[in-house]
Design brief:
With 398 residues, the protein is α/β, with parallel strands linked by helices. It contains 12 helices and 15 strands. Helix 1 runs antiparallel to helix 8, helix 2 runs parallel beside helix 8 and helix 3 crosses helix 4.
Length: 398
């Protein structure tokens, strides 16, 4: 049996929309992208959602908004040491310097008690990551940001459907970035989305995704309706070639939006199936607790049913790599629980952090992994996974 991590789901609606796009020959961002944005914003509960080509771009653009409000190149953004490398990469892509803060091992998220000591006169934002669908502790983070006049950008890549104290992930900070990669609850194959409740930010984001151009209406009548645009020559030249800020090439196309709209139509069903898998895998894993560890929801939150993390305890008679190699040999597709970006990812070495600086993140980086609870996985897949864990632990006398 092969335990799938994540596969793309192509619905009948998606196939219909893609065929219509191909027949029309208009594949750049237009009506479908705008419809996808509107539908996504409604699901998350924000006034605006801006579609881009990747989740990494969503992070980078969400940060680049700050340049319109006084930020300068090489200003600092505080991020957790533990995350997928895209988090740190996006900070650098946006022209800022990442300043890393260790995590709490029991949550996998940034330790709020350690944030203030990382703030300097150059700090402009905090970007907490809701890792593995578990919300960062946002109240103290928002309080710190308020006192120090900092932006808050939620990296909600893995948090579709998560709630913190009644507020949905992606609605708490100034902006939030979502990934729409195939492993996520809503996917456009590749793609990302930035959400915000601040219309002025949304306008800047629409400019940023198209090289910083002055053309930034919610819906372009030229591309979506093939009509004359009364605003086109506002500057006595074509507004599409007036560039107000340094921007990115990060637009979503109609084919990706067609996939996303298919997921929007299935979202409640996908969420229900994933919740069933999430509850079932946690129940089946329970007898293994102590010999293996996972993370748990707090009483005030609803975790997203994104994936299931497993952590090898310190006193174990085996390593994480021994366990995941055994699982892979037996058909279980696993992923690491990422790494301490500043000390376990070679590309960030130029920042000068030394091994041992982030002990909690480094521990998870070498002891943690996760498996999917995708909506195409069923209870028999999960039973097989638990059976393999049980057999492995027995063979290791653990």
């Amino acid at each position: 049996m092969r335990y799938p991590f994540g596969t793309i789901t192509i619905s009948g609606k998606t196939k219909k929309l893609i065929n219509e796009c191909l027949e029309s020959t208009r594949l750049s961002g237009g009506n479908l992208v705008r419809e996808f944005e509107t539908s996504f914003a409604k699901i998350i509960g924000t006034s605006d959602a801006i579609a881009v080509n990747t989740g990494t771009a969503a992070d980078a653009l969400a940060m680049a908004v700050m340049y319109d409000f006084g930020a300068q190149r090489n200003d600092e953004v505080i991020v957790p040491a533990l995350s997928f490398a895209a988090t740190g990469n996006a900070v650098l892509e946006a022209g800022f310097k990442p300043v890393f803060v260790d995590i709490e091992r029991t949550t996998l998220n940034i330790n709020p008690a350690m944030i203030e000591r990382a703030i300097t006169p150059r700090t402009k934002a905090i970007m907490p990551v809701h890792l593995m669908g578990k919300c960062a502790d946002m109240d103290p983070i928002m309080d710190i940001a308020s006192r120090h006049k900092l932006f808050v950008i939620e990296d909600a890549a893995e948090a579709q459907g998560a709630f913190y104290k009644g507020r949905q992930a992606g609605t708490i900070g100034d902006t939030a970035a979502f990934s729409l990669y195939i492993a996520h609850l809503i996917s456009s194959v590749e793609g990302g989305m930035v959400t915000t409740n601040k219309p002025e930010y949304a306008e800047i984001l629409r400019s940023l995704r198209a090289h910083g151009r002055a053309c930034k209406c919610e819906q372009c009548v030229v591309s979506s309706q093939q009509q004359y645009c009364a605003k086109r020559f506002t500057y006595n030249t074509d507004v599409r070639f007036v560039f107000e800020r340094i921007g990115f090439s990060a637009k979503m196309n109609e084919l990706e939006a067609a996939v996303g709209l298919g997921y929007i139509e299935m979202y409640r069903d996908i969420l229900s199936k994933r919740w069933d898998n999430w509850n079932y895998i946690r129940a089946q894993f329970s007898p293994l607790r102590g010999r293996l560890q996972t993370i748990d929801p707090s009483p005030f939150e609803t975790m997203s049913p994104y994936a299931f993390p497993v952590i090898v305890p310190e006193n174990a008679s085996f390593s994480r790599d021994e366990l995941t190699f055994y699982l892979e040999k037996n058909g279980i597709d696993t992923r690491s629980l990422f790494a301490s970006m500043p000390t376990q990812c070679k590309g960030f070495g130029f920042l000068g952090y030394k091994a041992g600086s982030f002990p909690e993140a480094e521990y998870i980086g070498s002891h943690g992994f996760h498996v999917g609870i995708h909506h195409d996985i069923n209870h028999s897949h999960i039973d097989y996974f638990i059976q393999l864990l049980t057999t492995f632990l027995s063979e290791k006398n653990a």
